[in-house]
Amino acid sequence: MLSAAHYLLLLVPLVATTFAVPILTPSPLRSTGLAKRDAVYTALPAGSGAYLYDYCGEVAHAEYVSNPAEQALATDCAALTQRWAGPGYWTVRDAGGWVRLAQEGTCAFEVKLQPGQVGSSDQFTFGTNDVGFYIRGYANVHNADPQGRVSVWSTVVCRREGLPLIGVDWRVIKA
What we know:
Blueprint: H1 4-18, E1 36-40, E2 62-64, E3 72-73, H2 74-83, E4 89-93, E5 99-104, E6 107-113, E7 123-127, H3 128-138, E8 149-150, E9 152-160, E10 163-174
Antiparallel strand pairs: 1-4, 2-9, 3-8, 4-7, 5-6, 6-10, 9-10
Helix pairs in contact: 2-3
């Protein structure tokens, strides 16, 4: 079993090389600035055999984008789910726009608070299982166009530590 120090040593190089640098100029295709982003890998108590990395609910309706300028290769999205298989989560603080959690090749996964959701706490948690679940379910080769490209977004509710659920938009978009 790895200690917390081992997890930190494994995590630091990933954070330094994998996350995209926040972009400060707003654009419909790019992330905006990021106030806080942490990636944490954690296990539940020893012997439980379960991991806590599923923080958000089911998708009621997904919207697909047909503009090639916004579409990622579905194969890159599949690779993203392999790279960020978890267990783990991101703690995100709203920065007024899209926050990029992960990227692989042409595929980026981004989140943002729904308008009007900022209140006593604009911080929320998004799990690696959530990212994988939404990509596998909605941004896969079966949902791609004939060229193997896909872009999709939806809204879900996510848990927050000791606070009510919060509405979060997520999207898979061309990086």
